[in-house]
Write a structure and sequence with these properties.
about 30% strand; alpha/beta
Length: about 190
Amino acid sequence: MAKLIYATNMSLDGYIEDERGAFDWFPVDDEVFAVHTELLRSVGTLLYGRLLYEAMAVWETDASLAAHSELMADFAGAWQAAGKVVYSTKLEAVSTADTRIERGFDAAAVRELKAAAGSDLMVGGANLAAQAFRAGLVDECQLFILPVVVGGGKPGLPTGMRVGLELISERRFGNGVVQLRYRTVGQ
C-alpha cells in the first residue's frame, strides 16, 4: 500500500503562516528547493486544500516560473506530473490538468486511493492534513523546520490530538533549515 506523506515548511515555533497569513519568511535556498522537488517527484497524487492548490497551480499555469532556472523547471515538471485532488466547497473549476475537486474529505475514499496507488500520495495544507491525521491516514511527516520564530499564526501540525512519531531521518542544510522525517506509530 502506498504511504500518505504530510510535508510542510514551518517556523521553529511550529507555524506555516504568521499572524498576518504571510509565509514570506521562508529562506530561499537551491538545496532545500531541490529536496522538495525530489519529494514531489516521488509521489503520484497530491491531496490539497483549496488555498494551497490555488497557490501552487501557478507551477502549471504560469510558464514564466519554469523559465527562471533549471531547478524551477524541474519543480514545475514534477508538480505537473502528479495527479491532484482538491478538497473545497467553494472552488468551481480547476485550472490544471489531471485535477479533480472533492467537496469534502472522505477518509474511506482516501484509504481506497492509498490501496490502489502505484506510488505514494502527499497531503498538503494544515487543515486537510489535520483531517487525515484524525482519520489515522498519515504514514509519514516530512517537516522542514525554518530558522525563525514567528510568534503565532497557523499551526503546521494538528492541535487537540496526540500522534506518536518515530524519527526516520534528519538532514541539515547550510541555510539553517532542518528536514525531519517521521513515521507515524500507534495509529
